[in-house]
Amino acid sequence: QWSATETKAVVSTQSTGELPALPDSLTDGLFKRKPKPTKNEKEMFVENTAEDPKISAEKIALQKEVDALVVPAVKSVDMLQSYLRSRFTLTKGQFPHEMKF
Question: How far apart are the first and last CA of the chain?
Answer without folding.
Answer: 29
